[in-house]
Design goal:
Blueprint: H1 2-5, H2 9-28, E1 54-55, E2 58-59, H3 76-82, H4 87-101
Antiparallel strand pairs: 1-2
């Protein structure tokens, strides 16, 4: 027993590190799976993927979009008024957007 106590400190630390590494490997090693076949993969299609349509980087699938040409002297308030917004709503939107548009 005295023989083992005379081992240098470096050797004892090295043995402790080695035992620690082996212990960690034994604890965290991957567990083998018995019925896991790597050659066969079952694919099921349960949900159909819907294609997302984008215009100018904006997904437009869920919006009602009307296309047209802006006429001379036609401004945004005229266009928004044609879509049912009141003058008060248009003014409120204009005030909220003022710092971004000016």
């Amino acid at each position: 027993m005295k023989k083992y106590l005379n081992i240098s400190k470096k050797v004892r630390v090295g043995l402790a590190v080695l035992v620690g590494i082996i212990g960690l490997f034994l604890i965290f090693r991957p567990k083998p799976r018995m019925n896991d076949s790597l050659d066969e993969v079952e694919v099921t299609d349960s949900v159909e993927v819907k294609e997302i349509v984008c215009k100018y980087g904006i997904p437009v699938d869920h919006y009602d979009i009307s296309y047209g040409i802006v006429q001379p002297n036609q401004n945004l308030s005229y266009i928004l008024g044609d879509h049912g917004l009141s003058s008060a709503d248009i003014h409120e939107l204009n005030e909220k957007a003022r710092e971004y548009l000016m």
